[in-house]
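Hi all, posting the design record for the shared folder.

TITLE: backbone redesign
STEP: 1 of 1
STRUCTURE INPUT:
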């Protein structure tokens, strides 16, 4: 699944998680692929389960890839 980095950063900042937002902004590409970038997401303090929970809540926009 692909995510827009800026939307993720905004969501994290809204939740008060500025440290993770800073790491995401610095370490990840503009379009995040949750599979290909899993290691970088984990290094920033996010795992796939956390992202899926945020997605289920409609926290930020995504585009599904076939």
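Okay, here is what came back for every position:
SEQUENCE:
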């Amino acid at each position: 699944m692909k995510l827009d980095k800026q939307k993720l950063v905004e969501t994290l900042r809204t939740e008060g998680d500025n440290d993770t937002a800073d790491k995401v902004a610095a370490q990840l590409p503009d379009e995040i692929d949750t599979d290909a970038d899993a290691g970088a997401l984990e290094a920033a303090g996010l795992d796939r389960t956390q992202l899926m929970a945020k997605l289920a809540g409609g926290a930020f926009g995504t585009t599904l890839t076939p």
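COMMENT: Confidence is low (pLDDT under 50) at residues 62-66.
Let me know if anyone wants the other runs.
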